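Researcher: Let's do a round of design. I'm pasting the structure tokens now; please hold your answer until I've finished.
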């Protein structure tokens, strides 16, 4: 048993649900990541997947921030952006499947932190475990790995983990990010994929397909993401059509009193939102910011079994696209979506008889 694991077991008395697990290779992380060299004992209910760094808790001075990462290879620059805001404290990775690929990767990325550990929270019992909640609340940064967002919703919503994440985002104000499925749950509006995923042609053909279920203000309350739904793997999986359909369904179902918005992120790309609500784009792809072109811009036809129509003189939804860079490119003010944008290009998106048009 390694020195780190021995120290961990000596320092913390975990409850019966906090059991240790063998590490497995993680094929979903950055290609540059390495597996943690610690080994643990195989059990049927893994929770704590390992830690690198100092096991003693420290309290750094953090800066609020949110990272929306589009999936595939992680964006090093965006990860460093988060780590720098962790104030030299403790980083916690949470997931419902996978292993420890993030531990060594983040610990050696170039921004000093006290420790990086991974928790596998794959049941509601574990999500309500007081020790897991304590470890989360002590974190100075949290990152939600990729996987299946339906598991995150089913396992974590309305639990201690849910409460801890909102505490970290809004009271302690630590940087929080997520990639792929982890990105999907960060908007206050979100697609939980509880009935399975859906592609753009299917969504546009029938905006009331049974798979289109939208979570509304009942999970994470991230700063500056009110009335906003995220989507990821954007260009690679051609998700603009389904994203627009999600916006249309939210408007048609609730007729909200505020403009409905979306943020879509390409793979190997990340949107970093600072404490003032300013968004910058890192990586090799682009991010698109979408917002309803005024409360009067409602879909002309959004009914079961018929293609979506949301045209409004070809200006149904406003858009702003920013290409990423290593240093971070562009600026988009999430406190006022209709002003203070730079480094990108503006346009409109409309839908005619189930076909998407951009201009």
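Researcher: That's everything. Go ahead.
Model: Designed sequence:
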């Amino acid at each position: 048993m390694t020195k780190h694991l021995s120290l961990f077991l000596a320092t913390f008395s975990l409850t019966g649900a906090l059991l240790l697990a063998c590490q497995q290779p993680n094929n979903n992380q950055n290609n540059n990541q390495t597996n943690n060299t610690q080994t643990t004992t195989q059990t049927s209910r893994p929770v704590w997947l390992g830690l690198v760094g100092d096991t003693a808790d420290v309290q750094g001075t953090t800066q609020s921030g949110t990272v929306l990462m589009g999936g595939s290879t992680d964006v090093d620059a965006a990860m460093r952006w988060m780590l720098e805001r962790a104030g030299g404290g403790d980083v916690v990775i949470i997931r419902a499947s996978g292993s420890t690929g993030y531990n060594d990767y983040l610990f050696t990325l170039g921004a000093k932190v006290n420790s990086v550990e991974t928790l596998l929270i794959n049941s509601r019992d574990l999500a309500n475990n007081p020790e897991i909640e304590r470890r989360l609340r002590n974190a100075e940064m949290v990152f939600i790995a990729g996987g299946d967002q339906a598991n995150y919703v089913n396992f974590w919503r309305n639990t201690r983990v849910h409460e801890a994440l909102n505490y970290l985002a809004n009271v302690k104000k630590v940087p929080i990010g997520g990639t792929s499925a982890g990105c999907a749950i960060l908007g206050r509006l979100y697609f939980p994929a509880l009935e399975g995923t859906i592609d753009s042609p299917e969504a546009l053909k029938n905006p009331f397909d049974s798979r289109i279920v939208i979570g509304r203000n009942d999970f994470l309350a991230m700063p500056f993401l009110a009335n906003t739904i995220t989507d990821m793997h954007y260009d690679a999986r051609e998700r603009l059509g389904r994203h627009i359909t999600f916006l249309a369904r939210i408007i048609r179902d609730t007729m909200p009193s505020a403009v409905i918005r979306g943020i879509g992120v390409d793979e190997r790309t990340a949107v970093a939102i600072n404490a003032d609500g300013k968004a910058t784009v890192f990586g090799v792809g682009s991010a698109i910011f979408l917002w309803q072109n005024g409360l009067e811009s409602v879909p002309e036809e959004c009914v079961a079994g018929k293609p979506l129509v949301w045209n409004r003189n070809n200006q149904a939804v406003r858009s702003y696209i920013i290409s990423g860079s290593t240093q971070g490119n562009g600026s988009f003010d999430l406190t006022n979506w209709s002003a203070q944008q730079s480094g990108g290009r503006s346009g409109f998106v409309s839908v005619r008889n189930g076909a998407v048009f951009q201009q």
